[in-house]
Amino acid sequence: MAEYSRLALLASDAERAQEAATLYRETFDWVPLDEADAVVVLGGDGFMLQSLHAMLDSGHILPAYGVNLGTVGFLMNRNRKTDTLLGRITRAKPHTIAPLLMQAVTQDGERHSCFAINEVSLLRETRQTAKIEVSVDDKVRIPELVCDGVLLATPAGSTAYNLSADGPILPLDSQLLALTPISPFRPRRWHGAILPDRSEVRLRVLEEEKRPVSVVADQREVRDVAEVRLAIARERELTLLFDPGHSLDERIVAEQFVV
Hints:
- The chain has 259 residues and is an alpha+beta fold.
- Helix content is 18%, strand content 38%.
- The two termini are 36 Å apart.
């Protein structure tokens, strides 16, 4: 079991999280984020994603223990008594997740790069359906996908937008990615693909001016894209800490039995 002696605290702006943060600050001696060896995140899944993205962008990545003060709390632990926190963190099980690196080129030739923990989605911007060429490892697999969009999801994100688009749920240790169409029109029978996570995916927008497409990496959007390349960023792996019996693995399995 890892012992974390220097903890930093992050809390969302939500009222519940701020009230809890006041109690936590009175109970423990916290250190600044750049001096910590782990971080406690108070809030919901959205704030956890925001906190993880901030670490990815800064390059200073710490194990994160989330305390759910939001709604679903898929990436979080249950909110328990404040004075049991240190013991819970000591007993917590680490789960490593690798984000996607999204590299996009716009119609104007601008280049954008960012990370996605859950998924990267291409979405039509107008009433016109999108037309997208789908390539995997430099081989064209679908010359023309006519659709509202298409997404690539990690195992951690497979129960989010991917599941709503009828994509598969992936076990956390599966080393797979889910490539899922959004309202496909042609080819009508293509329901997506499960790919090894070493795959590199290229999505090229066809008729880009007539049928403009945006790309969204988790919560970050780039509009009017011409091409998007996607691959796992292994050098930026993240570690989430979960209470025993409440791991992300278990939540992913349990999600498949929700009726």
